[in-house]
Amino acid sequence: MKLYTIDTGFFKLDGGAMFGVVPKSIWQKTNPADERNLCTWATRLLLIEDGKQLTLIDTALGNKQEDKFFGHYFRHGDATIDNSLAKYGFHRDDITDVILTHLHFDHCGGAVERAGDRFIPAFKNAKFWSNEKHWNWALNPNPREKASFLKENIVPIQESGQLNFLKEEEDFSQNISIRYAFGHTEAMMLPQITYKGKTILYMADLLPSVGHIPLPYVMSYDVRPLTTMKERQFFWEEIVEKEYILFLEHDPLHACCTLQQTEKGIRLKETFSLTDI
């Protein structure tokens, strides 16, 4: 098995929304905001080469939306899925499987592309993996999440016949199991990978950045913030006890980190790149 970091650039979101009830005077120490109160976030994906399977976890924002839409999020950086794949000798047509942790636009927008006046899957040879509970949640969104669940990111995958559902107790493969979290959104999937005798947990939006490690540092985007706090406490204790490595999708600086128990609670232990594992 080989793992590759797939960088796809950066975007911006409101710092207050990203840190919820935490005061700006605290969170800006780790995630400084610009003059519009926007913080920079990565769209960092994970590619897993395991035998005949080449699996991509999440697909970032994509580029099919109108300029007005992207004007709210200030995408920047030169990295794309295509040039990051090419760096390792791959093409998007080589992808056999795409695991979508959840269907918010910054995690699944790149799964679909424009073809003239149509929307089609951007990975024509891949199976797309979600779960039925989250898929139905996204197709019938609540008012709080409606702006994040875009039909053009979701419906074309189902119409293509490439959509597959995982059951909650079902592993994706021999080396990849799926954990679930319900605070950020319904049934968000967290791939857990066995690699070189270690366990890597893909954090999606359960831990956006190392600045979010303290338990109360919960995003305002979460639909069930108290559930998120309980889930984080459960996962954090397991992560420390079993020495998991965390892969961070949105941290602007750090791809991976570990946690440790301190007098102030569970905190950051160290950060490093995927190649250091």
Gyration radius, to the nearest Å?
Answer: 18 Å
Shape: globular
Assign a percent range to the helix content: 10-25%
Average pLDDT, all residues:
97
Q: Which ranges are low-confidence, i.e. pLDDT below 50, for 5 or more consecutive residues?
A: none
Describe the model:
The chain has helices at 15-19, 24-27, 67-70, 81-87, 105-108, 132-139, 151-160, 225-242, and strands at 2-14, 38-50, 53-57, 97-99, 112-115, 118-121, 127-130, 163-165, 176-181, 188-195, 198-202, 245-247, 256-262, 265-272. The protein is an alpha/beta fold and 277 residues long. A 6-stranded mixed beta sheet has the order 1-2-3-4-7-8. Strands 9-10-11-12-13-14 form a 6-stranded mixed beta sheet. Strands 5-6 form a two-stranded antiparallel sheet. It is globular and about 55 Å long.
Short summary:
By secondary structure, the chain is α/β, with parallel strands linked by helices. It is built from 8 helices and 14 strands. Strand 5 (112-115) and strand 6 (118-121) form a beta hairpin.
